[in-house]
Write a structure and sequence with these properties.
This protein is of the alpha/beta class. The protein contains 8 helices and 8 strands, in the order βαβαββαβαβαβαβαα. The longest helix is centred in the C-terminal third of the chain and has 13 residues.
């Protein structure tokens, strides 16, 4: 199996996802993944999990259904300053921190400044689905900032689902992959699963990864030990 983990996964706590943490873990174990993360939507997303959901994730066992489950969040980037919707006291209790632009939380517009400021936040490890065409950005500048700040940029499988509202970002993602390759900066793949059978599914990404000639050594999902070290685990 080429890809060893998936850390962009939602549970019913996100409000518009449909599987429990146990269902997610069981499927990921059956699929043969090394580990997963549960990264539910933070509070500013309508229907998202409340702050106490993230504070109390420490009650989860490290292994569920035979697979390691990391505690995480998908934060919302709220403005051009890169503001987010959880404070350090909550983030301190988590292991995987993604931050993304979502239309219910920030209106579509040019997002270079917002993304660069989010990248500079040392609490944010991953920028989720930056290829959303509703939020155009300077690819070279954002990749450069990500490399300088050791932040990963996500290539999001759900964005390429024809039913998704982020469709149309193929050109941006291709440019992002080429620039990451040029700067020798790894990317991370995320399923953005909202139902457990999509966990570890990166099938929509395969054609564009192949077209960009993205080497395995620049795709973090092929290197589970390196990623855990990146997280400080």
């Amino acid at each position: 199996m080429k890809y060893k983990f998936d850390v962009h996964i939602h549970s019913v706590a996100s409000g518009h996802a449909y599987s429990s943490i146990t269902e997610n873990a069981r499927f990921a174990h059956e699929k043969g993944l090394d580990f997963i993360a549960i990264t539910d939507h933070a509070p500013k997303m309508p229907g998202g999990a409340c702050k106490l959901h993230f504070f109390n994730m420490c009650v989860l066992p490290e292994y569920i259904e035979g697979i390691r489950v990391l505690r995480g969040v998908e934060l919302n980037i709220l403005d051009d300053d890169g503001s987010i919707d959880l404070t350090d006291g909550y983030i301190d209790r988590l292991q995987v921190v993604i931050a993304s632009l979502h239309t219910p939380c920030i209106k579509p517009r040019g997002s270079t400044e917002a993304l660069i400021n989010a990248v500079k936040n040392p609490r944010i490890q991953i920028i989720g689905h930056p290829g959303d065409p509703r939020y155009p950005f300077d690819v070279k500048a954002v990749v450069n900032a990500a490399r300088e700040n050791n932040t990963l940029l996500e290539i999001n499988n759900t964005s390429f689902n024809p039913m998704n509202t982020r469709h149309g970002g193929e050109t941006v993602v291709f440019e992002l992959l080429k620039e990451c390759k040029r700067q020798n900066h790894p990317v991370i793949l995320g399923s953005d699963a909202h139902f457990h059978t999509n966990i570890g599914n990166f099938s929509y990404l395969e054609p564009i990864l192949k077209e960009a000639e993205m080497p395995d050594e620049l795709i973090m999902n092929t290197m589970p030990e390196k990623f855990l070290k990146f997280l400080g685990l």
